[in-house]
Structure of L-lactate dehydrogenase (Cytochrome):
Amino acid sequence: MPITRHPPPAHAPGSTIGHLPHPRRASVPPLSKITCIEDLRLVAARRVPRMFYDYADSGSYTEGTYRANEADFQAIKLRQRVAVNMEGRSTRTTMVGQDVAMPVAIAPTGLTGMQHADGEILGAKAAKAFGIPFTLSTMSICSIEDIAEHTGRHPFWFQVYVMRDRDFIERLIDRAKAANCSALQLTLDLQILGQRHKDIKNGLSAPPRPSLANLIDLATKPRWCWGMLGTPRRSFGNIVGHAKDVGDLSSLSAWTAEQFDPRLHWGDVEWIKKRWGGKLILKGIMDAEDARLAVNSGADALIVSNHGGRQLDGAPSSIAALPGIAAAAGKAIEVWMDGGIRSGQDVLKARALGAQGTLIGRSFLYGLGAFGQAGVTRALEIIHKELDITMAFCGLTDINRVDASILLPGTYPT
Ligand SMILES: Cc1cc2nc3c(=O)[nH]c(=O)nc-3n(C[C@H](O)[C@H](O)[C@H](O)COP(=O)(O)O)c2cc1C
């Protein structure tokens, strides 16, 4: 990969990528004027309380890997082709055998119901209507049962963290089965927590503590407050009332810190696979050796992911790691990726470099924080349109025919 320096992300102050005026200086534009993910980010920055916006828009330590996830996509150039029949285009494909309207799923994100009231329910509804999978995090605000109830038991995916309390994990997996989840993502890159400076400085908690700084901030976020007053879902819905000795919030934070299991190993993958019995996806693979172990585990898919730059700062970007991992994994397992996807062009580039599917974290969260369910739908529409149009400009009409030949040699990682 020729890129070694990473400029600030596109949304750094002074960026011209977002075309809306600075959020604090202008009123929020209508949805019809939202034309890119950066526009959604700017509105979310204005509407979501500071600690939750920062929780989403941050990476660990220097945020170098977080920035590289986006910047490395931008360095890859596409080959423009002309005079090719562009009619009858299709972005439809499959992820672990499931039909998807485009090779994009919503990634699991913790505390999503704090970006917007009932955020996970709204995200799941938008994904269902669009025809792509939604993944619910273990650390969600809305519970597994909430999602099943509010989507008419439409299948969704569940993401599990392995914790020391194995009984709790087994019950969680059983609850996901009972709720009609059609795939389980096992996250392997969070045995211990990467440090994000902003979360410590902001005193991140769910719900926010009534400190003076928080109350002043909340006073400028009336929509958010109004939404929160209208929902009973303000804490970790999968955990409170389900895990032993977690009845209130103060014990929950202590429980979380001590419960993520630092001893997680490949033997545990076997245990989870057996208990689950359905499609299993391993999330957080960044190394060719681990990709081979993932193949040996018998999982159905692996996700090349550095947790959106939130865990090991200094790890390569996901898109830089993708080709090596795809080569190591071969055809025995589906290879997906996430990290830094802010446009349909990024999805196309990931697909060209060997990802059968992709996941979006922040692109989803910004849409949700900005406009709720309508914002998520807008984010998906934007990404879909960018994917469709760019594929056509590259001379292809079927996403299933995309490969590295659409990329300019010398500009992409190998
Ligand atoms: C706010 C936030 C919370 C996250 N929470 C989780 C989580 O609970 N479980 C998990 O496996 N990954 C979690 N992730 C990582 C995402 O699933 C995904 O790997 C990452 O967001 C992809 O990068 P992107 O945000 O640049 O698209 C989280 C990411 C963000 C931004």
Notes: The mean pLDDT is 92. Residues 55-56, 69, 107-110, 137, 139, 159, 187, 283, 305, 307-308, 310, 338-341, 360-362 surround flavin mononucleotide (CB under 6 Å). The radius of gyration is 20 Å.
